[in-house]
Amino acid sequence: MLEIKNIDVYYGDLQALWDVSVNIAKGEIVTLIGSNGAGKSTLLKTISGLLKPRKGSILFEEVELDKLPAYKTVELGIAMVPEGRKIFTEMSVHENLELGAFTREARKEKNKTAEWVYEIFPILKERTRQKAGTLSGGEQQMLAIGRGLMSLPKLLIIDEMSLGLAPVIVQEIAAILKKINKTKGTSIFLVEQNVQMVLALADRGYIIENGRIVREGKTDALLNSESVRNAYLGI
Amino acid sequence: MFIQVLSYGIMIGAIYGLVGSGLALMFGVMKYLNIAHGTFIMLGGYASYWLFTLWGLDPFKSIPLVLLIMFTMGIVVYKIVFSPLVKVFHVGERIQNSMLITFGLLLIIDNTVTWLWTSDVRSITTSYTGSTFRLYSVNLPYNSLIGFGLALLALLCLHLIINNTYYGKSIRATTQDWEGATLMGINVDYTYLISSGVTFALSGVAGIVIATSYSITPSGGLEWLLKAMIVLVLAGEGKTKGILAAGLFLGVVEAVGVSLVGSAYREVFGLLAFILVLLFRPQGLFTER
Ligand SMILES: Nc1ncnc2c1ncn2[C@@H]1O[C@H](COP(=O)(O)OP(=O)(O)O)[C@@H](O)[C@H]1O
Ligand SMILES: [Mg+2]
Question: How many domains does chain B have?
Fold first, then answer.
């Protein structure tokens, strides 16, 4: 469904990604693991079109993503929960969700989808009129994910979901993601430093170091590999 | 007497709000500080003036035409002058660059207008100019009353558009975080384009009101730019309501000041309020924070 083929990405003259290839199939949960500064967020920005690859290509359901302006990515069915969440802090929780359903198709289903999101994250329903900036970290993350779901995505991408959240809340959200993946068939791409959490959730994973993919495989295999255990689990 | 002063303050205050709204919209959405804002207001005034002088069109009846002219001008100016700056992502740099560019634009327009139409002070004098409406002991000029109503109406429309339409949603989202807005599927470039058009249309309304109640000259825009900037600071990148409140506040402060010390000091009171607010409430008088 998503095929990233051999992309090089630069910030001006500074190269941040080298020959990166990643595939995600329909219905899969895939993870990308890497330490701080490895290039994870850069890859996600390139998928969403905020950065353009200088070499290589990105296909989403046969459409060349890298040839489209960034705002079209959502229309095609990719929802991004970006680094830092980027919720609209000055708007209410409900307004944030509505913005998630900005695309033409999603607009039609807006109310129904919102009901569903409130069902998944009941705390958001309690906070519906509250300014998003006043939510706790965990609630903001739920809002960011809920907002992503509002666009009725085929692929949901989440950048460092667990960052700054208590383990209990991370587990709660992880369980919800698993359920969405099961019931709706939504593919999920989880980008993390926190390996524990994703390896339990994902089917496959990639490991990125210094802008290059250094390893890929089934999560069990990655978990059992000596180098991964050393580098990311500290065992 | 005090009521009379207050009513003048309120009537011009609404116009200050209107003048500030265009500057605030462009600054909020695009982070462009448009130094030529007042100059475009003058152009709106000239459009209304020439439609009246050459074709005898009543300035309040030609509003749709002036709006259309100014909206189109906003689109064209965006395409030619503003859009290259979109690639400057750093907010501080964008503000600085936009100030330089629009200052250049101001000089070009100012000189062109002087060359075309001389630097004469002009205003639109209709059959009802000068007639006043008496409410108890307060004299209210018709022109100012209509101008006041127009300013309020324009601000109301802006408020409704921003809060109730999908364009308004994209404006608010883009204002807060253009990257986040893009990720929602909002075409930020298009939002900028339309906002430029809307800003110019607001300048058009302001130009009409100013040409009928006050006067226009090629360089008269600077004075209004100053008011707009004071309003922007007082309102603190706020909502339309905050901008109207800031305009009214400035209008009343000026009017009361003038009635106490004389009109030579008009600008002083506004600037004093401006400095005091910057010192003690830099986030703006009418923000919620
Ligand atoms: N806006 C930027 N301009 C220049 N370099 C950047 C920018 N953002 C990130 N980088 C660099 O790109 C590399 C990858 O960063 P990033 O993708 O944010 O890493 P991660 O998300 O894995 O922590 C880092 O070396 C970082 O310094
Ligand atoms: Mg990152």
Answer: 1
